[in-house]
Amino acid sequence: MKPTGILFFPAFDWAISPTHPEREERLLYTRDQIFEEGIMDLPQIREYQPGLATHKDIARVHFCVPDIDSQITEAHLISAGSALRMADAVINGEVRNGFAIVRPPGHHSMTVVHGNRGFCNINNEAIMIEYLRRKYGMKRIAIVDTDVHHGDGTQEIFWDDPDVLFISFHQDGRTLYPGSGFMDENGGPLAYGTTINIPLAPRTTDEGILFILDNLVMPILEEFKPDLVINSAGQDNHYSDPLANMCFTAQGYAKLNRRLNPDIAVLEGGYSVESALPYINMGLIMAMAGIDFSNLKEPDYSPEQFKEPRGNREALERIVNTQLRVFREREEKIAQARAKEQRPFRMEMRNIFYDTDYIHETQQVELRMCKNCLGFKIIMSSARHPSGEYYNVACVSIPLHGCKNCQEEGQYAYQTLQKGKYQLVYLQNKVDDDYRVTDTKTGYETRL
Amino acid sequence: MLIGIDVGGTFTDGVLFDDRKIRFTVKKPTQDDNLEQTLLEVLDELLAAADGNKISRVVLSTTLVTNLLATGQGERTALLMLPGYGLPHQAYSVTRDIYFLKGAVDFRGRVIEGIDQQQLQEILQDIQGKGIKRIAVACKFSNRNSSLEQQIRDFIQKADPEMQVTISAEVSGKLNFPRRAATTYFTAMTLPEWNRFADSMSQAIQARIADVEIHILKADGGTMPIEASRHQPCETVFSGPAASTMGAVALSRDQKNSVVVDIGGTTTDISLVIAGDPLYASKGARIENHYTHIDAFAVRSIALGGDSVIRCRENSIKVSPIRVGPAACFGGSEPTVTDAFNVYYKLGVGDAGRSQELLQSLAASGGMSMDDLCFYVVETVIERLKRAITEMFTEWENEPAYKVWEVIHRRKFRLDQLIGIGASAYAIVPILADEIGVPAYIHTHSPVANALGAAVVRPTLSLRLHVDTANSLYIVDPGGIRGTVERPRNFQLADAKVLALSLLEEISREKDIDKYTANAKFFMEEQFNMIRGWNQIGKIFEVGVQVAPGFIEEYQGVSE
Question: Do A13 and B404 touch (CB under 8 A)?
Fold first, then answer.
């Protein structure tokens, strides 16, 4: 059997700030544990060297304001690049599956990036998905977000994309950052039902999460038939995590991954650096590599320690029923939306808060309700940065399989918007893999 | 004057070196069943040549431990493992005599489960019942806290004073439990035999030479005094390739990127030298298919040498891995790789007519022209060596990196030269270098580069210090010694470095190699703020300092 790929990049020289949860120490004990176990020496494991993502890889997903370099550090390029390296190894058949144990994380990063949200600047999994579609022509991809926080960034990026199934289970948004991920967030009008949220009550245990996995996540994956399954692998559902309130264990994580059997797992959050991460990461590696993990446990764990909250099973059953219905009705709902929609554009206003950098962003999103493709999109975004600079930008995105008409209209919009009030106008043309920004003051255009 | 002796699989080489000159060389067939005899014969010839001049140091590179391990002649040894939680027990397979014990330590050095004396008692009885007299003990994370291993040793030695017990914390302090367990097991297995050898060699040499330093060559290309070797016999494995590589560097004396190609009778060893420094194997020496914590050069051995015999069967030519004797041009009975190069490139090595004669008749028996035969052999040899070199580069470039700085400053290798050593290098290395497109460097003394390497390298010593200020403790590898950090709240990286250096000096004094610590350099400096909640509770430092492989000061090169 082919080995499992492991790419371990702990970024021992990078932190958001010296005392921040996202600091050098985060993967130190994980390093100690997996190196002491000698896991990289096993024939079932193949270790990979980190890679570097290019600016173009990032531009395929994000509009960085004012530019990519002011939003990222080299650590971000390596973290994202390592996910790409792992993906290459899996697609090329060098390994059966792969786990990128990398930081900084990415699943709170949305399409437009003004700063850091929830410890994330750029979205590693989204960058990987666009890379896989571009490089290998991959069509259907499922991403299961197992972080305790709702993967709102990934959800927003693929909100209007029916080819990317996004399933997130997380602690209920009424009790935890980022305060979203409710049952009725099901995707855009042309991609209804491929965004599935599973808000869980605080103190849900292994039992509850595995129930959701077996009865909801796995059936949906089976019906969706993705070419690739990605685990956006947060580790903060753990009972010892300081930033959340769930009761998941290392055994639970291992079982989840054994059953989910993801092709690629990418580390996201998880801040119980000493009591949880070393054991969860071992569990994930062993599960993915087909190694017996029955001898794994946290030193302080005993099986009687945690009980499912009372009445949780009934609540979970309701979630399962509702979300299975949402998923199964998706084609019908999309057809209805297309039939009902009379306006050429569907408009939406929203406010986005960046907790790490304390930025308030205002967005107006216009989606072309195209009959032939997913429609091009315009995002008008404004925000004051911590530097004091106020930015008002317009971003045009043409989808990968955009029709001729949407391509032309998108190009036209890119030109026209430059005459407006925006300092920067972006074009993300996924059809031609062409990414541009015009500084309207100087008229200077950068192109990737 | 200096003496270096390298015991090889086929031959044992010795050199007498003094004042930039190789005064005398000896080459004798190795008697595998009597290494001491071989060594002393070579030594005596060198001493005769020294003619009463003062010998200040003798360095031996021997295959004693390598042979013991490779031939399975090591005495039966039990391995007690304390794996705690993690991989399943069946992941560990160094020997059939493995016993798993209760007891566990975590990465911060906290004991999370004590040992069970009842269980230990039963296991000891079982071991005694099998007549086993040597025990290796390895606990996961014993490099952070060796108290469980020490308790076990105390228990066993109290119950059975005859039992030899080796604990892993004293063998290696590096992370990687399976490698540490394997290294400890092999150490326990070879310790008494090695010590017998060390005793008798010390005596024999001291009887011949007054007031001489006796050193043993290690796999990492450095030496250790014979007294210091008594705790770490496994460090002597693969010292042969280390001798050759250091010999190559001793001859070339430059800061170039080189491939060292050591072409022996039946094997070719290839190693990399990056800007003048030999490259280490990232996973340590491999013994009997087990990775270990023994630092060794990254050497790729190919079963192909100058004396590899060429055979011909039913129109197919085979470069056989076996040796039946020297090349035909040196009086052998069958044509070899050296003969094929000799004829094809008209090198005029030895009796070239004899090369041609035997190749001609071999070609005729296979129904082909001699030219075609030689071309095929040359092509095969060059291709195999080229492939091995390329693979080594790729492996090295693909080594993992764990810091942003390392990824951004990604290493790239530009090859400057091939250094050929070994008796058959003349015939093959220039052609190989030409194919690769770099110059070949072959010194007149390259046939004895291995023994020269042994004679002139300096001792090496590597020390790692792990400091955990939240627990006010530090732990040192080698030795696994724990100490207390005074004023932990004020302890900084600079303090950790000062501490590491002073510990290195202390250990050097104990080992009697303190005159070399001036060459010590830091190879690792890591520090981590430990935050719990939003408060800093301490720092963790990992500092490494070493006297890297190099040459003793009096060595200033060899005149041609």
Answer: yes
